[in-house]
Amino acid sequence: MLCQIAESGSFTAAAERLGYTQSAVSRQAIALERSAGATLFERRPDGVQLTQPGLTLLRYARTILASIDAAERDLNGETPRTELVRLGLFVSAGAVILPAALARLAADAPQLRVTTREGTTPGLTRALRTGSIDLAVLSSRPPHRPPDSESPRLHLTTIEDTELLVAASATGTFAGRTSVHVDELVDAPWIATPSSSAEPLLGVWPGLPGRGRVAYSSRDWLTKLHLVAGGFGITTVPESLSPVFPPGVIGLRVQGAPPEIRRVLLARLPGPTTPAITAVAQAIMTVRFVPNRLRS
Question: What digits encode the pLDDT tens for the residues 103-117?
Fold first, then answer.
């Protein structure tokens, strides 16, 4: 439970993942604090964060869980033949980075096994801090502050700066074009991803004058892009995603407003790392993003 609360960032989110009620998780958290004789969780208006004693207990919990896994393998006579690296990616990065990086690793380091998970940048940052993943591909917007305020700072390497585009139907209002003026987007129907101040996600154009009209809402990129292809609305996308657009979708640069740039980062905990994690990081940095070719 401690691990899930730390990773989820709130009692409510942890309860959803564990299949408990929020009150049950809160009671277990209070019981754990009483047993430890220390305040383990800092309750905030926007969620929960582990205190220093909580982080100390979390490190021991991770060690215990790893030892239990190792004991089960020994009892079952299993000999690990691969080195495991746990990689997290924000959703739109996976379609572009992951296949090429895994193909390179299969050729250069076949002894490695990479498991992946998708999430938002805040969620993946928490997962790094709690030890649930080893590497994370994160997104950053200007002025590119660190993904969290915790110490020590995460080790960050820039993979790419990518410009945001508007994805539109190839047969719709903007057919045959490669750009659109921001004023033309004001009354357009948008397909957006539900967002919050804690987890800002792509949807309506960030620099749109006024409030955009959201026609459909989805967290799934495939759904969003196929709705765009069907002419049901437009959506904001990173330029790096354009090589994997489905048929019927075009990417448009936005004129009349400052460019919207997002930085793609590779993050890990500071300090020494393992050869396996280094190999995965190098594969990701070598592959990078495929240069965009806007479709017309």
Answer: 999 998 888 999 999
User: 211 and 198 in one domain?
Assistant: yes
Cα separation, 264 vs 269, whole angstroms: 17
Whether 153 and 278 share a structural domain: yes
Residues 195 and 65 in one domain: no
The H-or-E segment that residue 8 falls in is: helix 2-8
Instruction: Note the pLDDT tens digit of each residue in 157-187.
Output: 999 999 999 999 999 999 999 999 999 999 9
Q: Domain of 269? A: 83-160+262-286
| Pairing outcome for strands 235-238 and 155-169 | antiparallel
Q: What is the pTM of this model?
A: 0.75
Tokens of residue 171, six digits: 């047969």
Q: What's the pLDDT tens digit per position in 3-13? A: 778 777 788 87
Q: Does some domain include residue 293? A: no
**CB-based contacts of 75, cutoff 8 Å, min separation 6:** none
Contacts 24+ apart (CB under 8 A), 228-233: 228/167, 228/168, 228/169, 228/191, 229/169, 229/170, 230/169, 231/169, 231/171, 231/172, 232/189, 232/191, 233/188, 233/189, 233/190, 233/191
Indicate the burial class of 167 (C-beta count within 10 angstroms; 0-12, 13-18, 19 or more): buried
The answer to whether residue 267 sits within a structural domain is: yes
pLDDT of residue 253: 96
Contact 153, 265 (CB under 8 A): no
Give the domain CATH number at 22. Answer: 1.10.10.10
